[in-house]
Design a protein that fits this description.
The complex is a heterodimer of chains A (113) and B (113). Chain A has no helices and eleven strands. Chain A has 113 residues and is an all-beta fold. The termini of chain B are far apart. Classes of the chains: A mainly beta (113), B mainly beta (113).
Chain lengths: 113, 113
């Protein structure tokens, strides 16, 4: 059983501030890491798929980094806006079986206007 | 473009009753298909995945089963629901495995009383 942990569990951030949160995973047998955003009453939406150590990906004000050697990924949001309020999920694929995503429990982000 | 449908959107069922949730994908051929569940206070848990018609892999021993009678149809079933089956069920598809994004359906909220 793969253990994917996300911290913090929840976060309140003032509008306009930047923030970041962490996804930790076993570094052995890493294959890929996915980040999703899940807004209330909607389906999870893919943000990034990361595969290489040192990867950095960006989508608008959101970016993510990956360290496969130490087993963590950071998600950054610059200049938070109310529409950023959502639960952010990371999910690991190991090379034990690369069809399967193992999700963390998510970081619930609330932006305070 | 590809779309994924799930129904019903919400369902309230008594303990011991049967269950059938349906998921269909349009606009793609031979997708990988997945069933996930989010129980209260927990992360997304992979229940079943399928790489082709009639091919089902089960991740968690339970009283649920899945079938894929057609290329783009994935069904989640139970003969007798338990209270612990309550949760939010999500269907997802991807083109391939590993580094491919998974696209999620709108979900079904199941309450077992």
């Amino acid at each position: 059983i793969l253990n994917v942990e996300q911290s913090p569990q929840s976060l309140h951030v003032q509008e306009g501030d930047s923030t970041n949160f962490t996804c930790s995973f076993p570094s052995s047998n890493f294959y890929a890491l996915h980040w999703y955003r899940w807004e209330t009453a909607k389906s999870p939406e893919a943000l990034f798929v990361m595969t290489l150590n040192g990867d950095e990906k960006k989508k608008g004000r959101i970016s993510a980094t990956l360290n496969t050697k130490e087993g963590y990924s950071y998600l950054y949001i610059k200049g938070s806006q109310p529409e950023d309020s959502a639960t952010y999920l990371c999910a690991l694929i190991s090379n034990f079986g690369n069809e399967k995503l193992t999700f963390g429990t998510g970081t619930r982000l609330t932006i305070i206007p | 473009s590809q779309t994924i449908h799930q129904w019903p959107a919400t369902l309230v069922q008594p303990v011991g009753s049967p269950l059938s949730l349906e998921c269909t994908v349009e606009g793609t051929s031979n997708p990988n298909l997945y069933w996930y569940r989010q129980a209260a206070g927990r992360g997304l848990q992979l229940l079943f995945y399928s790489v082709g018609i009639g091919q089902i892999s089960s991740e968690v021993p339970q009283n649920l089963s899945a079938s894929r009678p057609q290329d783009r149809q994935f069904i989640l079933s139970s003969k007798k629901l338990l209270l612990s089956d309550s949760g939010f069920y999500l269907c997802a598809w991807s083109v391939n495995s590993g580094t491919d994004t998974q696209y999620f359906g709108p979900g079904t909220r199941l309450t077992v009383l």
